[in-house]
Amino acid sequence: MSAPFGERLDDAVASRGALCVGIDPHAALLEKWGLPDGPDGLARFTDAVVDALAGSVAVLKPQLAFYERHGSRGLAVLEEGVARARAAGALVLLDAKRGDIGSTMDAYADYLRPGHPLAVDAMTVSPFLGPGSLQPAVDTARAHGGGLFVLARTSNPDAGTLQHALVGERSVAQVVVDTVRGWNTPGWGVGDPLPDVADRAGRPTGSFGVVVGATLPHLDVDLDGLGGPVLAPGLGAQGGSVADLRRLFGSGRAVLPTVSRDVLSAGPDAAGLRAAAERWTTELGARPWR
Ligand SMILES: O=c1ccn([C@@H]2O[C@H](COP(=O)(O)O)[C@@H](O)[C@H]2O)c(=O)[nH]1
Q: Which domains does the chain have, with CATH numbers?
């Protein structure tokens, strides 16, 4: 079994910096790169991003939707790109946003099994069916050293409509964060009292993280004691900046900023892609990982 995802993420960030670059081959980007909007264009786009960045960026995050829209040939492109990215040393976080009843969730979690044709290091999941429905994915992640990022406070403008709704005294987003905090605590089960925040001191980053947008006007969930990483999308094209990360998350939290279009629009030239990613890494570099 691989080392736990959280530990592998700590190592990747220590050697490469805390940046995740999203691979989002939008039709408009393919056109901008002079590529056809089909599997061949998709393959050339993916190859270019992987070749330019997989040797230097800590995490690559392919967006599954942009591969699924090309059918089985699109998925074949993704499988090859993911394998090459991992071989070059990048961790791969599949942005799949899956969530279903437990028995089906178990099948989605197969992306975290090493023998899967699209085996990845971590994936995004949606808690809409209840955090407990994600338990099979937690079990698979634990068994194979994989990671999960659960949608908690997403970066889209109307996300609060559901995520601020109250469940008892806590918001839906807070229930998600607290559940993930429990997953990062060995032996904790849904319904058990929350672990003591102080219990985290000195431990490596946990393998279970949350998604919290860099676009929020203010941080309206309590991330103390989460124990795992925070994936922060919304930078660049959605308006978020490094200053927003500082404002929202301060320092001392394992925040993994993720950028897609702002880096990808610097392609197809490899030097352009690298320079765009390096600009973000440098700007983010001043922020301690934990
Ligand atoms: O709250 C969320 C969760 C996921 N995303 C995904 O991240 C990228 C963002 O792309 P940009 O081009 O950097 O805006 C995209 O794949 C989203 O599906 C998010 O934006 N917000």
A: 5-217+229-284 (3.20.20.70)
Helices (DSSP H) in 91-194: which residue ranges?
102-108, 135-144, 160-163, 172-183
**Residue tagged 């700590």 (tokens):** 10
Catalytic (active site) residue 97: yes
Task: Give the pLDDT confidence of 82-133 residue by residue, as tens digits.
Answer: 999 999 999 999 999 999 999 999 999 999 999 999 999 999 999 999 999 9
State the average pLDDT over residues 129-146: 97
Q: Is 95 in the pocket of ligand 1 (CB under 6 A)?
A: yes
Please identify which of the residues 8, 97, 98, 253 carries the catalytic annotation. 97
ipTM comes to: 0.99
Confidence label for 78 from pLDDT (cuts 50, 70 and 90): very high
* Spatial separation of the C-alpha atoms in residues 99 and 149, rounded to whole Å: 12
The residue with tokens 């309206």 is 220
Establish how many alpha carbons lie within 13 A of residue 146's alpha carbon, considering only the half-sphere containing its beta carbon. Answer: 28
- Taking each helix axis as running N to C, give the angle between helix 270-285 and helix 39-53, from 0 to 180 degrees, rounded to the nearest 10: 50
State in Å, rounded, how far the first CA of the chain is from the last one.
26
- Pairing status of strand 166-167 against strand 170-171: antiparallel
Q: What are the counts of helices (DSSP H) followed by strands (DSSP E) for the chain?
A: 12, 10
Which atom of ligand 1 lies closest to the CA of 213? Answer: 1
**Residues 6 or more apart whose Cβ sits within 8 Å of residue 94:** 61, 62, 64, 82, 111, 118, 120, 122, 123, 124
